[in-house]
Amino acid sequence: MNIGDVARSTGLPAKTIRYYEDIDLVTPARASNGYREYVEQDVHRLSFIQRARSLGFSIDECRLLLSLYNDKQRASSDVKSLALAKIDEIDRKIEELGSLRSTLKTLADHCHGNSRPDCPILEEMAKGVS
Amino acid sequence: MNIGDVARSTGLPAKTIRYYEDIDLVTPARASNGYREYVEQDVHRLSFIQRARSLGFSIDECRLLLSLYNDKQRASSDVKSLALAKIDEIDRKIEELGSLRSTLKTLADHCHGNSRPDCPILEEMAKGVS
DNA sequence: GCTAGTGGTTCCAGTCACTGGAAGGTCAAG
DNA sequence: CTTGACCTTCCAGTGACTGGAACCACTAGC
After folding, report:
1. Given a cut of 80, is residue B46 above it in pLDDT?
2. What is the dihedral of CA B74, B78, B84, B85, to 10 degrees?
3. Quick check: B99 CB within 7 A of strand D?
4. Which CATH number applies to B1-57: 3.40.350.10, 1.10.1660.10, 3.40.50.300, 3.50.30.40?
5. Does strand D come within 7 Å of the CB of A82?
């Protein structure tokens, strides 16, 4: 399996797949012509990484998850606590987004929306009333 | 106000504040000794940026958000439509985060979190039931 | 065998938004 | 007058890619 096929089947750009080799995440064999030769297990690891990344895990966290995945003796509690920590992180982001949203909402609600430049809420914000 | 005070009151590292000057986001006056001299308005701008950044807005988006209350010449309708567009963006972000969260939550809930190696979080990432 | 086209290779540079560290200037306290 | 905190600039590195140049390999059609 060449890199292009792997790219198609994992949804990862070839560039990214090469980058993952650079950082020793997935290191395929090489054919006699120098092409990367991916086997099923490589593709599997790459798909795993793709999914973990899209769930917001960092590369280092992916490395950890992969090692947990490959370690048949690992405790599922390790993975669970990692996931729970991520959930906390997400909750914090959502909360902060909500607060910026309400700031902007207040702003929008108090704007006349006409062609004059006056917008008292903006003036207040500029002065420090957040 | 020196950069250290500003760092303490905004929660931004001094390094970052200097970087923001580099990219012309917040450009304080200089004292005779070369020190940066921040006024209240600078601090407020920096706090706003801090908040917006922590919510995933790019520097360029921050520039746009700042223009909401910095441009005295804008029509308030411009302000309003910009704010409303941003709110839509925030809503989309919140929704995405929410779905990420629920995926992780479901997985974590089904994980026993004990010392045995079966773990639905890893299994899901391996299989690709996203 | 020649050529075109696709897909592979390496390497170097750039991106974004910082972050770290060196080398040195400034200031208030003891 | 020294100590130590705080400030300055500049240069380099980070994470996770991404773009591009220059070149090699394979396949299909003529």
Report:
1. yes
2. -100
3. no
4. 1.10.1660.10
5. no
pLDDT at position A115 over 80 = no
A105, burial (CB in 10 Å: exposed 0-12, middle 13-18, buried 19+) = middle
Q: Where are the domains of chain A?
A: 3-70, 76-127
Neighboring chain A residues of B112 at a CB cutoff of 8 Å: 76, 80
- Tell if the CB–CB gap between A108 and B84 is shorter than 8 Å: yes
The CA–C1' separation of B64 and D9, in angstroms, is 29
Confidence of residue B57 (pLDDT cuts 50, 70, 90): confident
Q: Compute the distance between CA of residue A63 and CA of residue A21 in angstroms, rounded to an integer.
A: 13
Query: Residue range A31-55: average pLDDT?
Result: 92
Q: Which CATH architecture has domain A3-70?
A: Orthogonal Bundle (1.10)
Decide which of B122 and A94 is more confident. A94
> B residues 8-27 near A, CB within 8 Å?
none
